[in-house]
Design brief:
It contains 8 helices and 28 strands. By secondary structure, it is α/β, with parallel strands linked by helices. Bound molecules: adenosine monophosphate and magnesium ion. It comes from Candidatus Contendobacter odensis Run_B_J11.
Amino acid sequence: MSSGDCCDASDRLLTLTEALAAALRFISPIHETETVALFDAYGRVLAADLPARIDVPPHDNSAMDGFALYWADLKLDTPTRLPVIGDALAGHPYPAAVPVGATVRITTGGVIPDGPDAVVMQEQCLIAPDTGWIELEAQTAARIRRGENIRRRGEDVRAGTVLLPGGLRLRPQDVALAAGQGYAALTVVRQLRVAVASTGDELHPPGVDLPPGAIYESNRYILIGLLRRLGCVVTDLGVLRDEREVMLPVLRDAAATHDVLLTSGGVSVGAADRVKEVIAELGTIQFWRLAVKPGKPVTFGRIGDCLVLGLPGNPVSVMVSFLLFARPLLLRRMATMPAEPLRVRAVADFSFRRKPGRREWLRARLRPDPAQGWLVMIYPTHSSGVLSSLSWADGLIELLEDCTGVAPGDTVDYLPFSGLGVE
Ligand code: AMP
Ligand code: MG
């Protein structure tokens, strides 16, 4: 096996933190961009800072349905009576200046006409539509401030400022902000092309009868679902036999046409674990094995310009190592900055003993407790082959390398799946 520049010289396994730091340094974000219509921009990575073109709102406007008037016209000792000389409805500005001593009816979003410096809510006025007057009690008038209910030009966004930063993964509210500036399309980083392969002679796709000794394949259904949520374009390479001659051409061709190659299985120390060898033969392995549980045999390397992530075979290891290890690397390659996973402090409703040394994640479920706040419990079995535990869980508990165990009532870090992009 060839070794790269971020392998640890000693036998000590890299910690997740060390491995992520080394891998993130090594990854070059993709640069190619494309322009997409706003409705196609959700989840895409903005290619460069997007400047604000106009002030928003573009004019002072009313925050309420009511009457635009001069604050100085309000009387504090006797009712105020003002003639209604016209309308300033949203989209239909009042065409002239309003003289002192008069008011215009205005709706939410209506442009404040020249002159008035306050809007009084309709509900605060005595309105006599047929007479064309409004009246305000002295008590009401006393509570109104100058500038009341006026949204100022540019108070939301100022022209010339950075509206959205490059590298942002666009959420609905970000796309809406761009729409509010009149942008009809956005320049985004092209989608990441990811190829996914499962390996193992025992694996058969769903939909066929199982021969003796075989199992149905499940890892691609985890990985492809997670990748689609990240907005990647996925190529399904199917299930590969544990044979060098089968894997080598498939992985070589996929590496030539994809940004990332993601495999599961075949990276441990078993007699049929060929994936590592094949990656090493086609490219470089930067590191193999991390001080984590589950997911220890994770392999990180490259074939040409293609990043290669060899995940272990057990379905739980696959999902955990994807979320904690592969996901931040994919985000980096997508030209966005991965955020730290959301960690919430919760009270353990379980006990757990362990050997320190590796960082460990337990499948967990959170529930509110009137007395203790957020309580978290774990799945009864810890085997990384038990996929049903992941379906049961709504997140993971993270135990740091030096943790020796958890007792009921201890505070632990809980990572909701939703904070890792899985909902
Ligand atoms: P491996 O790392 O290839 O030794 O696989 C470890 C365990 O995970 C074995 O029990 C495999 O049968 C199982 N496994 C590997 N790949 C998959 C898969 N795609 N779907 C379901 N189970 C798998
Ligand atoms: Mg295998």
